[in-house]
UniProtKB/TrEMBL annotation:
GO annotations of cellular component type: nucleus; transcription regulator complex
Keyword NADP set for record: no
A Pfam entry, by short name: zf-C4
InterPro entries noted in UniProt: Znf_hrmn_rcpt, Znf_NHR/GATA
Nuclear receptor domain mapped to chain residues: 26-100
The protein's name: Nuclear hormone receptor family member nhr-6 (inferred by orthology to a C. elegans protein)
Xref: SUPFAM superfamilies: Glucocorticoid receptor-like (DNA-binding domain) (SSF57716)
Annotated PROSITE patterns: NUCLEAR_REC_DBD_1, NUCLEAR_REC_DBD_2
Molecular-function GO term, any one: zinc ion binding
Region described as Disordered: spans on this chain: 1-22
Compositional bias (Polar residues): 1-20
PANTHER family: NUCLEAR HORMONE RECEPTOR, NUCLEAR HORMONE RECEPTOR HR38-RELATED
Keywords of the record: DNA-binding, Metal-binding, Nucleus, Receptor, Transcription, Transcription regulation, Zinc, Zinc-finger
Length: 100
């Protein structure tokens, strides 16, 4: 049921490490699909996207897309277009109001 890994320590005792949560779903960032532990600003996001969103809102930054405003935002390419990344943050439900 779970993707468990059994390892042996120096004492010969075995321990099990689950690679998925109890419900079988990995927790992924709604913006870039990186690993996400909890919700930030209204959406499940990774630390990178949380920080990006916070800085963008605090600075009131205005970004420009050099592409077609439909850039790929994933773990590997999330830093390539700040405009599209911020738009995706908004689209997945991150809110500007609240504690920053």
């Amino acid at each position: 049921m779970f993707n468990d890994r059994i390892t042996s320590g120096p004492s010969g005792l075995q321990s099990t490490t689950a690679s998925s949560d109890p419900f079988g779903e990995d927790k992924l960032c709604a913006v870039c699909s990186d690993r996400a532990v909890c919700q930030h600003y209204g959406a499940r996001t990774c630390e990178g996207c949380k920080g990006f969103f916070k800085r963008t809102v605090q600075k009131k930054a205005q970004y420009v897309c050099t592409g077609n405003k439909n850039c790929t935002i994933d773990k590997r390419f999330r830093s390539r277009c700040q405009y599209c990344r911020f738009q995706k943050c908004i689209a997945v439900g991150m809110v500007k109001e609240g504690k920053l």
